[in-house]
Specification:
The complex is a heterodimer of chains A (241) and B (88).
Chain A: E1 7-16, E2 21-27, E3 39-45, E4 51-57, E5 66-72, H1 80-86, E6 92-99, E7 113-118, H2 122-135, E8 141-147, H3 156-160, E9 166-172, H4 189-195, E10 204-210, H5 211-223, E11 231-236
Parallel strand pairs in A: 7-8, 7-10, 8-9, 10-11
Antiparallel strand pairs in A: 1-2, 1-6, 2-5, 3-4, 3-6
Chain B: E1 6-7, H1 12-16, E2 27-30, E3 36-38, E4 43-45, E5 51-54, E6 61-68, E7 71-75, E8 79-83
Antiparallel strand pairs in B: 1-4, 2-3, 2-8, 4-5, 5-6, 6-7
Classes of the chains: A alpha/beta (241), B mainly beta (88).
Organism (chain B): Nonomuraea glycinis
Protein name (chain B): Hydrogenase maturation nickel metallochaperone HypA
InterPro entries (chain B): DUF6510
């Protein structure tokens, strides 16, 4: 590993995920590859020299020098409005990464995995699901995906396709689909007990989402008997965007 | 602390500018309460005017990092030691 440098990245493809989020596929010459769960910094520089940078999770394993991120529009943000509404194929930004070696999943790992996503916290967890698929891993995965309403689902078509060894539970906090068995509401102990793994299976738990969601979900996992070293967390703060 | 915070994962980029290893997997010991854990588990407040990382156990400041023009300031007075995983 060497010290991080900024590299030029060119947008090659855009996919809409929801009304407010889109996936950007970037071509980054010299990209060194990355692990599922890592992130990168994106820097925008205006003509007058003013620059702003934000951190985004990588959404998929690297395809050579191609990388993917999914960006949610934050209304009063400085960077996300540009990335979700302005940037076009062929435009360039600067990126630096990959960074973060803690919140990562490695395909050689054999422990069962519990992924707990709050909203856009699904992004690095999706990278883990895709890395598992790419590696042909048979490690059992469970995903608990908490969302405000069904329209906010990222990667909806891909997650709808059945995948052996991956169980998905959706949890809605404000509006559920019709005839949904669970009432709308925030994640509770029972959700993690039913959709997760028993603590004595010693699963690796990855929790990602807004700070409040992560605090609650991680505490509930500890209450269920999961060891702190098996519960890894990543928080999106209020300074995002 | 009621202000919302990030966690030590957010230090990965800024510290990656300084070090050739991933500092967020380094295990640090808090100078105030002695809690040990990866820098990734610290509570990070910022980004302006700098990043302030606090101990999840006692909330005291463990690390501060300010990136200015032409230089970075790293204040580690709240850290007793860092154990950095390295291949042999």
């Amino acid at each position: 590993m060497r010290r991080l440098i900024w590299r030029a990245a060119t947008l090659v493809e855009v996919r809409a995920e929801t009304a407010t989020a889109r996936t950007l596929v970037l071509d980054v010459p010299g990209w060194p590859g990355h692990l599922a769960g890592q992130h990168l910094d994106v820097r925008l520089t205006a003509d007058d020299g003013y620059s702003a940078q934000r951190s985004y999770s990588l959404a998929a394993p690297a395809d050579g020098e191609r990388i993917e991120l999914t960006v949610e529009l934050v209304d009063d943000g400085e960077v996300s409005p540009y990335l979700t509404e302005v940037i076009e194929v062929g435009d360039q930004v600067e990126v630096r990464g990959p960074v973060g070696g803690w919140f990562v999943w490695r395909p050689e790992s054999r422990a069962p995995v519990l992924l707990v996503a709050g909203g856009s916290g699904i992004v690095p967890l999706m990278a883990m699901i895709r890395a598992r698929r790419l590696a042909g891993s048979r490690t059992p995965f469970r995903l608990l995906y908490s969302l405000r309403d069904p329209g906010r689902r990222y990667y909806a078509a891909e997650l709808r396709r059945p995948e052996p060894g991956l169980d998905i539970t959706y949890l809605y906090t404000r509006t559920t689909p019709e005839d949904w068995p669970r009432k709308a509401g925030r994640v509770m102990l029972g959700d993690l007990a039913e959709s997760g793994w028993p603590a004595d299976f010693e699963p690796d738990c990855y929790v990602c989402g807004p700070t409040g969601f992560v605090e609650v979900a991680a505490d509930l996992l500890l209450d269920l008997g999961h060891a702190p070293e098996h519960v890894r967390t990543e928080r999106f703060g209020p300074s995002g965007g | 602390m009621t202000i919302e915070h990030l966690d030590g994962n957010a230090l990965a980029g800024p510290l990656g500018e300084l070090f050739t290893f991933d500092a967020t997997t380094a295990v640090g010991r808090c100078a105030h309460c002695g809690l040990t854990g990866p820098l990734a588990a610290l509570r990070v407040y910022g980004p302006g005017p700098g990043l302030v990382a606090r101990c999840p156990g006692c909330e005291e400041v463990v690390l501060r990092l300010v990136r200015g023009p032409g230089a970075a300031w790293l204040d580690l007075r709240g850290t007793v030691s860092l154990r950095i995983p390295l291949p042999d």
